[in-house]
Amino acid sequence: MSKLASWHLGGGQKYYGVTPDLSTFGKALANRFSVSALAAKREFMERRGLRHDKERVFLLSTTHGAETHGLAAAIATMRVYQRESVIEHLWKMGERLALGFMEATCEAGLEDYVHVVGKPCNLAFMTKDSDERPSQAYRSLFLQETIARGVLMPSLVVSYSHTAEDIDRTIEAVRGALSVYRQAMDAGTEPFLVGRPSKIVYRRHN
């Protein structure tokens, strides 16, 4: 069974909710203004209070406490979430992107080397070399080729502003980039890559 068929039949269509003990939120909470939030079950949140004799914990930072414009942005953002189908849109566009991306990899015969990971509302992608090992050189080549086609996509996270046309344009850029990736699987990245491959952020230094 192909990865695309598998995603259609289960991996990409069923999502199981999780009730976390503790959650943190940022960025989208106030449309990228400096606001974050901590939410948790009562038993954990009360550990920061005064109404118990257990060891208290620190759960509050006021680095941006005086910046009330951020709070106004958060309130406005939450009102948009209440009024409009933001979450549904993110999942719908994410599913369109994931399926289109995977269809393109299957067309190029690269489904074992380039794949989508994550949930539709928060997608990323992986790139592998001909031995199916994670490769920064191939990732760099892939990004180089999507940029050449007008799409900068270090990840695949969609936003509420993305339209179906935006997603389809991204998929076309992916399709074009994969045609070069396919050639590099035989010849290596050197004939195609301009400059040095990127490096992962977290790495060892001797």
Topology:
Elements: H1 3-11, E1 22-25, E2 37-40, H2 42-45, H3 68-83, H4 86-107, E3 114-119, E4 122-127, H5 136-148, H6 164-187
Antiparallel strand pairs: 1-2, 3-4
Helix pairs in contact: 1-4, 4-6, 5-6
Give helix and strand order, one letter per element, not per position.
Answer: HEEHHHEEHH
**Overall shape:** elongated
Cα radius of gyration in angstroms: 21 Å
Helical content (DSSP H or I, runs of 4+): 40-55%
Task: State the oligomer.
Answer: single chain
**Annotated CATH architecture of the largest domain:** Alpha-Beta Complex
Index terms:
single chain; 206 residues; mainly alpha; Aspartate Aminotransferase, domain 1; 2 domains; two-stranded antiparallel sheet; 43% helix; 10% strand; elongated
Describe the model.
With 206 residues, this protein is mainly alpha-helical. It has 2 domains: 62 residues, no CATH class; 102 residues, Aspartate Aminotransferase, domain 1, CATH 3.90.1150. It is built from 6 helices and 4 strands. It is elongated and about 65 Å long. The relative contact order is 0.11.
